[in-house]
Amino acid sequence: MEKALRVLSITSALLWALLAGMVILSMAFVILGEVYVYVDRPVVVVYKGQLEILVVIYVRNGPIFSIRNLHINISLTDLRGHLLCQNETSVGDVGPDSDLTLSLTLRPRIPPWLRGRPLNLTVVANMIYAVMFPIEVRASFKIQPSYGLVGEAYAI
Asked: Where are the domains of the chain?
């Protein structure tokens, strides 16, 4: 009986050590996996009398694991948090050793009472890395419409 308990305790200790080693190895691969998400400053243009805000997002995935369920949301709000315009896209999976460049456009109609007031542009990228590590990247920019554009949109 003692011999069986000793064998079971040694086996249990080996299994726990193997599990701990696998978790540490997985975390090392994730740390060394080199996932970069870069959100460039928004570019604001007026095209045919319509305000357009262009946002470029660059995703670089390292050579080991995939990015799963990449979802990007861009929103424009006033300083009180009221939503003025939103754009979102689901990219899906990004394979190992991949580069991805996304260009998203907002075409807001700025109400007259917000003319000349600052607005918040927020970009959020959600993804799952290496099957079990959720990542959220959030970038915020303050933009301010200027005067001089006739109609519902104003140059920023």
From this structure: 1-32, 34-143
Residue 78's CB: how many other CB atoms inside 10 A?
16
Which CATH superfamily hosts domain 34-143? Immunoglobulins (2.60.40.10)
Q: Dihedral sign for Cα 141, 156, 126, 57, please.
A: negative
pLDDT tier for residue 156 given thresholds of 50, 70 and 90: very low
Of 90, 91, 88, 93, whose CA–CA distance to 68 is shortest?
A: 93
* CA dist., res. 138 & res. 149, Å (int): 30
- Confidence band (pLDDT; 50, 70, 90) for 153? very low
- Amino acid (one-letter) located at 102: L
CA distances from 59 to 27, 38, 71, 79 (A): 21, 6, 12, 29
pTM: 0.74
Contacts by 10-15, CB closer than 8 A, 24 or more apart: none
Question: Distance (Å, rounded) from C-alpha 24 to C-alpha 30?
Answer: 10
106: how many CB neighbours lie within 10 A of its CB? 19
Instruction: Average the pLDDT over 22-49 and give the result.
Output: 81
